[in-house]
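Quiz preparation item.
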């Protein structure tokens, strides 16, 4: 069951969040291709179907954005990992990314993660700003992480 975004009156057509389904993958792949210079292929998203942290935002019945996150065991602890997040260009700036990230953090917490990490391009100021608003702190740089030789910043946040 989906609910309106926080603060949205009942009956409002604000974004709703639900787990991704196979029927969503073409729209997700299109958003990925419009958002990144090195997009994930369709098959990469297909592999994450069924992960509780693969969520989509629906706006007016269409996929407005998505997030892919999971939990893995790391040195005896459960670590959440936000692997990918993007919002369709027509829906950016409307809080869709924040809603997706908020819901994914709740899912990761519910699945036992005590912290969550992500990688972000050094040049992606908008994403870094969003992550800082959610309490993520830079942990380290990874030189040449992306195929076009751009560095990544690994960011981490404690949960719970």
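Solution:
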């Amino acid at each position: 069951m989906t609910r309106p975004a926080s603060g949205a009156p009942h009956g409002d057509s604000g974004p709703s969040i639900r787990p991704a389904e196979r029927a969503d993958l073409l729209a997700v792949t299109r958003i990925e291709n419009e958002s990144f210079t090195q997009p994930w292929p369709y098959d990469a998203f297909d592999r994450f179907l069924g992960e509780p942290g693969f969520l989509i935002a629906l706006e007016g019945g269409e996929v407005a954005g998505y997030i892919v996150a999971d939990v893995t065991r790391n040195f005896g602890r459960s670590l959440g990992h936000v692997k990918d997040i993007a919002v369709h260009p027509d829906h950016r700036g409307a809080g869709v990314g924040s809603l997706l990230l908020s819901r994914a953090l709740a899912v990761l917490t519910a699945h036992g993660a005590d912290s969550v990490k992500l990688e972000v391009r050094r040049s992606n100021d908008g994403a870094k700003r969003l992550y800082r608003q959610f309490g993520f702190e830079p942990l380290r740089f990874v030189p040449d992480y992306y195929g076009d030789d751009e560095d990544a910043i690994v960011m981490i946040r404690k949960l719970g």
